[in-house]
């Protein structure tokens, strides 16, 4: 699927990664957003889960991993050029 189509396809898939602005413009509520990095939101990606999967055990595990202090530290301090600027620590919101 193309970037920008995430909000439209969210009801028919398990999860979507897309531009923040796509979800903001579509009115996707924050409770469905697993990963939403700080500004610039219009260019950053989000990991969003469909309503029926919000409390799915696999989604809960994914959220646990994203918020693991070890993962957050790695994302904040890695120097891999393939990851720099592509991944960021997850906010607490």
Features:
single chain, 93 residues, alpha+beta, three-stranded antiparallel sheet, 3 strands, 14% strand, globular
Q: How would you characterize the overall build of this protein?
A:
By secondary structure, this protein is of the alpha+beta class. The chain contains four helices and three strands. It has helices spanning 6-9, 20-26, 57-66, 69-77, and strands at 15-19, 33-35, 45-49. Strands 1-3-2 form a three-stranded antiparallel sheet. The protein is globular, with a radius of gyration of 13 Å. The relative contact order is 0.16. The model has no long low-confidence stretch (mean pLDDT 77).
List the helices and strands and how they pair.
Elements: H1 6-9, E1 15-19, H2 20-26, E2 33-35, E3 45-49, H3 57-66, H4 69-77
Antiparallel strand pairs: 1-3, 2-3
């Amino acid at each position: 699927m193309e970037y920008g189509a995430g909000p439209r396809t969210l009801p028919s898939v398990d999860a979507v990664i897309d531009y923040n602005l796509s979800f903001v413009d579509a009115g996707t509520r924050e409770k469905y957003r697993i990963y939403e990095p700080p500004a610039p939101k219009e260019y950053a990606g989000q990991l969003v889960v469909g309503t029926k999967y919000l409390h799915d055990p696999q989604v809960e595990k994914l959220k646990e991993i994203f918020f693991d202090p070890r993962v957050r530290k790695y994302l904040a301090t890695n120097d891999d050029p393939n990851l720099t600027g592509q991944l960021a620590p997850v906010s607490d919101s």
